[in-house]
Design a protein that fits this description.
278 residues, 5% helix, five-stranded antiparallel β-sheet
Length: 278
């Protein structure tokens, strides 16, 4: 198992059991956690991989102090995504694109307000994010998600980055097992820490002069899994990356290029509720 790194200034090398050409991450710096809203903190770390520099934006969420909901927005009866972080309600403590998409509509399981909108999708590395009526968050493999009860909100995504208790799936450890382990792209992921808090990560490319770029280039899937494990997640799954990846933490914005059909919204408990669909 990969042990977590403390949130302070460090220089270290992270390694994973992925192909040798992409398994070394040099973490250059880690920013201290900064409160953003009731139950939400944010941080950043800088890292290098494949000869390039990147930034990982992090949000750490206490599910006992926020309310989660899914925002669904499509054009022309579901023929294309219509949501961006600018669609998030003004009281949102956090907003991030959720799941994967096919034909402009969400892929796999979607439950909103206790009602199943779409059935479970199937795949060896599919994982469901499940939130019960009490607000507790679980990440469960798709082959066991059908047994879940008391589901208020759920969505499905892939590939799984971590399962069990912080283990990287074997499909991410060797080539030829159905996952492209060499492709570099912007990444977004959601994970569950050992204390029940939720960790969301979004990568951004750094230009030669140190500016953050929306260029869709970043770590490989095994490298993203390693980062989430090193940060203390016991389970994690990738969200749609590339030009879809976008995150808002309070007033801070990391936009994407693509409108998406589904997003996860966190609102601080006690805050006034605004509509979650535009």
């Amino acid at each position: 198992m990969i042990r977590p790194v403390a949130a302070c200034a460090v220089v270290l090398v992270i390694t994973a059991d992925a192909p040798r050409q992409s398994n070394e991450l040099n973490v250059r710096w880690v920013r201290d956690w900064t409160p953003s809203a009731n139950g939400v903190e944010w941080s950043e770390l800088g890292f290098a991989a494949g000869g390039e520099r990147f930034r990982l934006v992090l949000a750490r969420i206490d599910p006992t102090r926020v309310r989660f909901a899914l925002a669904a927005a499509t054009r022309n009866a579901g023929l294309g995504g219509a949501w961006t972080i600018d669609s998030a309600p003004s009281d949102a403590a956090l907003a991030v694109n959720a799941g994967q998409f096919a034909g402009g509509t969400p892929w796999g399981w979607v439950v909103r307000n206790g009602v199943e909108v779409q059935p479970l999708g199937r795949g060896p590395l599919a994982m469901a994010v499940v939130i019960d009526r009490a607000g507790a968050v679980r990440l469960v493999r798709a082959d066991s998600a059908a047994a879940e009860r008391d589901v208020s909100t759920a969505f499905e995504s892939y590939p799984t980055l971590l399962w069990g208790d912080g283990e990287i799936p074997e499909q991410l450890r060797a080539t030829g097992r159905g996952v492209d382990l060499k492709h570099r792209d912007s990444r977004a992921a959601i994970g569950l820490l050992t204390d029940g808090r939720v960790l969301i990560g979004l990568t951004r490319f750094l230009t030669d002069d140190g500016r953050v770029s929306t260029l869709p280039f970043g770590p490989t899937i095994p490298e993203m899994a390693t980062l989430m494990a090193r940060l203390g997640c016991r389970r994690a799954v990738a969200l749609d990356g590339g030009i879809s990846s976008q995150l808002a933490i309070g007033p801070r914005r990391w936009p994407g290029y693509r409108r998406v059909p589904l997003a996860l919204i966190a609102t601080a408990v006690g805050a006034a509720s605004a509509p979650h669909t535009r």
